[in-house]
Amino acid sequence: MTTPSTHGSHPEPFYPEQAEYTAPDALASLLPESLDPRHATMLFIHAHPDDESTSTGATMSHYARAGAAVDLLTMSRGEMGEVIGERHADLDVRKRSDDDSGDALGALRETELEAACRELGVRNHWFAERRRSPGYFRDSGMSWGKHGRATSATNAASDCLTRAPLKESAAAIARVIEKVRPDVVVSYDVDGGYGHPDHRRTHEATMKALGMLSRKAQPLLVWGVEGEADPDDDRRQAVVEGDAATKKTAMAAHETQVEVGDGMTFHYSNNVEQNISAAESYRLLAESIDVSQEDPEDLAAGPVNSVIAGAGVGLVVGFIGTMFHASISYFSGWYLPWGLGLALLLVLSGTLWISHYTRRTWATVLPGLFAFIEIGFFVYARSDSLLVIPNPKVPIGQVGIAWILGILVMTMIGQWISNRTILKSRNA
Fold it and tell me: Where are the transmembrane segments (predicted)?
């Protein structure tokens, strides 16, 4: 956020009050009703360091504590910001020379953002990257208009966010969404909250990015931080209650930009006092009709079919794996158990397939369980059985032990992968 501190005879700068209006039918969550926070991935897209804390800090920390993966994309480093206090006063945009692009302030604000992200529980953070030089989007700056509303700065750099082609900033956002595959994206509403040009541009770029995504990368819901309250706005509203104390601590990490008071208030360099709100409101900007929005129970196999499928896959995997697990290539002084590797990959593949077919967490262990039982039968049903030889003194016996124990390991790995990919949109 960049806020000139002197507004002279102009009206006092306008900032909307967070969650000033709550619609009677407002939701209390940004997640689809069927999505457990522990299996959710959320991507917050903001314009500058500090925006994530001041605008959505309570929401981000709320979902991080609930177990969601909370990621953050910041479009610029806030190079055009003013500075509070004397410690870094020389970095203030008002005191720099015309040829100073603000890289030093941007670097400092990066460190502030790192501290805020730790406080909010952010999993991953990125700055938006552009393909052409300088490789990033610079802060556009802003000024206050005669009505106390944010407007464009007269000294915006040629490589700033608002002067870059919209398709470039949208592509930068789309690349991150494709990588993260979030269930929910949170950015700004069309007014950018209080009108900052970079906030508006971030909204435009986010909406354009949605049209660049592959079908599988489409988020289920896209929310915008609500600006000035409008009771006549008929879009779906969500009001999230979080922890104001955590939000305040994260805001305080941005010491060059935000000064928090003894109570629950803060101000920017223009000394306009604002409340630190635990409630943050949003308006729905877009929603996906992707099949993943359907009730997970409609996609899942029934319990009986899940058991039958899991048992069948396990017995087939156990038999085939046993047949070639002992395929070994011998060399001078060492051997390569390539058959064991293929057998274990077969177990992992069977586990993942069952996870996809049944959509049930407990069913993912069935292939490994039945394969393990089957191999136990091979080993102990007949004392002279040569199918699996658990003998640590010879290579084939060592491979036999690894095959038995490896089934359990592959099953655990398969379940871990499933819980973070295939099953993440299911309620626990």
Answer: 307-328, 334-354, 361-380, 400-418
37-293 domain in CATH 3.40.50.10320? yes
Q: Tell which phi-psi region holds residue 145, choosing left (phi > 0), alpha (psi between -120 and 50) or beta.
A: beta
C-alpha 366/C-alpha 265 separation (Å) is 55
pLDDT > 90? residue 74: yes
Question: What's the rounded Cα separation, in Å, for the pair 124 and 135?
Answer: 20
- C-beta of residue 50 within 8 angstroms of C-beta of residue 254: yes
Residue 261 has pLDDT above 80, yes or no: yes
Q: Which of 278, 281, 243 is nearest to 27 (CA)?
A: 281
Tens of pLDDT, residue by residue over 166-211, are 999 999 999 999 999 999 999 999 998 888 999 999 999 999 999 9
CA angle, 298 as apex, 295 and 304 as ends, to 5°?
Answer: 135
- DSSP per position, 258-318: -EE-SSSEEE-TT---EE--SEEEEEEEEE---GGGS-HHHHSPPHHHHHHHHHHHHHHHH
Question: 371-425, pLDDT tens digit by residue?
Answer: 999 988 888 877 677 788 888 998 888 998 999 999 999 999 999 999 888 876 4
Residues of the chain within CATH 3.40.50.10320 domain(s) are 37-293
